[in-house]
């Protein structure tokens, strides 16, 4: 039984690295690139299909110390809040804004000329709803990344480099 942690250690490190790398890449690279190059409706559709429920595995090494499993609990809680609460609200607000933009573009034109009074009151409300929920998803994601960085620091501090 003592050999099990030693056998799982390389997989644990690989899966942790994959998780952290994926979080960082999705948060700081792909979201920005997609937002910059895709039309809003395409970006909205892409965002709705990207997020999948996180998969959690149980590793022997995690349950040994509160400082090891606590970051995963924080990351799990923030992922749950994002997945179950704020991401659906953000997605709904994105879709609602697209529909409102379509409705606003069909507003009657006064005296045959185009009057640009800025966003309608409903669009302003939808923008506030979107901004609030989107900010929460960003902050929860950053908390999750911080928790994984903390765990990575603890994991790296236990590596034995003498045998390398």
From TrEMBL:
Q: Which UniProt keywords apply?
A: Membrane, Transmembrane, Transmembrane helix
Q: Per the database record, which ranges form the TMEM205-like domain?
A: 14-51
Where this protein primarily resides, as one coarse class? membrane
Keyword Transmembrane helix on this protein?
yes
Q: Where in the cell is it found?
A: Membrane
User: Would the keyword Lipid biosynthesis turn up in this protein's UniProt record?
Assistant: no
Q: Which GO terms describe its cellular component?
A: membrane
What the entry lists under InterPro entries is as follows: TMEM205-like, Xanthocillin_Biosynth-Assoc
Domain of life where this protein originates? Eukaryota
Membrane-traversing stretches = 69-86, 135-153
PANTHER family assigned: LATE EMBRYOGENESIS ABUNDANT PLANTS LEA-RELATED (PTHR23241), LD23009P (PTHR23241:SF102)
Q: What is this protein called?
A: TMEM205-like domain-containing protein
């Amino acid at each position: 039984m003592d050999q099990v942690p030693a056998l799982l250690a390389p997989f644990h490190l690989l899966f942790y690295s994959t998780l952290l790398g994926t979080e960082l890449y999705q948060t700081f690279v792909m979201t920005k690139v997609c937002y910059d190059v895709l039309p809003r409706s395409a970006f909205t559709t892409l965002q709705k299909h990207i997020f999948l429920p996180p998969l959690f595995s149980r590793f022997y090494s995690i349950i040994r110390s509160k400082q090891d499993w606590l970051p995963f609990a924080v990351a799990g809680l923030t992922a749950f809040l994002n997945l179950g609460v704020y991401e659906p609200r953000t997605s709904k607000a994105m879709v609602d804004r697209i529909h409102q933009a379509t409705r606003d573009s069909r507003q009657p034109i006064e005296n045959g000329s185009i009057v640009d009074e800025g966003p309608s009151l409903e669009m302003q409300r939808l923008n506030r709803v979107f901004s609030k929920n989107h900010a929460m998803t960003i902050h929860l994601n950053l908390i999750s990344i911080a928790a994984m960085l903390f765990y990575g620091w603890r994991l790296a501090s236990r590596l034995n480099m003498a045998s390398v």
